[in-house]
Write a structure and sequence with these properties.
The protein has five helices and no strands. With about 280 residues, the protein is mainly α. It has a single domain, classed as Methane Monooxygenase Hydroxylase, Chain G, domain 1 (Up-down Bundle), CATH 1.20.58.
Length: about 280
């Protein structure tokens, strides 16, 4: 294995680690967005009720603008994460997590668009001027009814009727409050169920991220072992080269000695023949 391959493998865990960090950040952003969406739904339910007003609508519209920007940011991050995943050839587990994030993004996008439509419908069907007119009409009718009762009946009968009317109004108010609280309880239960479902899905994503991190740790250990083995092999090769060099030097010295001895022998024989 070449050093180039080792460098490429060493870069993969870093890229995967960055992807895991982005995935965790996206999971938190989606969870926060879903929580803010639940709070906006509670405010939207107050449109057309006694709590409706200019300040409430301005608060809702400001929150809708803010959440629109947040949703666009989440969409951009998911898109960039997909590009990084394709370029780095991510594993099946990471692709599964990204798929779950895309599913969560689709759900919150649909819920957010539905909330905006409901708000626009309520805002158009119950204008502020209409609410003011209804309140003024009720006050005028109550005042006129009180004046007629005072003119037509004796004071004792009028007092009794007023007391009965107050009791009836109190009963209506209590009944209205009870129905309103029951509706709130039911809506809160539904919201809690939705939040629980979202938390379970987020927990599943975090479990997948944990498995992915563990897998990255195994990959890092494998690369570290390969680098260690390469260093050992390089050291052994250097030792073998040193031994071969020493052997070659000894062999060269022996060859020189043999050549000198042969030269001396040939010289002696030549001198003997000449003599």
């Amino acid at each position: 294995m070449s050093f180039v391959n080792y460098d490429v493998e060493a870069q993969k865990p870093d890229a995967t680690h960055r992807s895991s960090s982005v995935i965790m950040d996206l999971s938190k952003s989606i969870t926060n967005f879903a929580t803010n969406l639940t709070n906006l739904e509670k405010l939207n339910r107050q449109i057309g009720t006694k709590r409706d007003g200019i300040q409430l609508r301005q608060r809702i519209e400001s929150a809708l603008d803010k959440e629109t920007d947040q949703l666009n940011t989440i969409k951009d991050k998911v898109f960039n994460l997909q590009l990084v995943s394709k370029n780095n050839a991510s594993n099946d587990q990471e692709e599964l997590i990204i798929g779950k994030l895309q599913k969560e993004l689709g759900i919150i996008t649909e819920n957010f668009n539905s909330l905006k439509r409901k708000y626009d419908e309520k805002k158009n069907s119950a204008s502020i001027n209409d609410l003011i007119d209804v309140i003024n009409d009720e006050e005028s009718n109550n005042a006129a009814l009180g004046e007629e009762e005072q003119e037509d009946e004796p004071s004792e009968t009028t007092g009794l009727l007023q007391q009965q009317q107050r009791q009836q109004e109190q009963e209506l108010i209590n009944r209205y409050d009870m129905d309103f609280h029951q509706l709130l309880v039911q809506q809160r239960e539904n919201n809690i169920s939705e939040i629980q479902q979202g938390v379970e899905e987020i927990n599943t994503i975090f479990k997948d991220i944990n498995s992915l991190v563990l897998q990255q740790g195994v990959q890092v250990d494998t690369i570290e072992n390969n680098l260690t083995n390469l260093a050992n092999d390089t050291q052994n090769a250097a030792q073998e080269l040193t031994k071969a060099n020493n052997y070659q030097e000894r062999k060269s010295r022996c060859s020189c000695i043999i050549l000198v001895v042969l030269s001396v022998v040939v010289l002696v024989i030549t001198l003997a023949i000449i003599s």
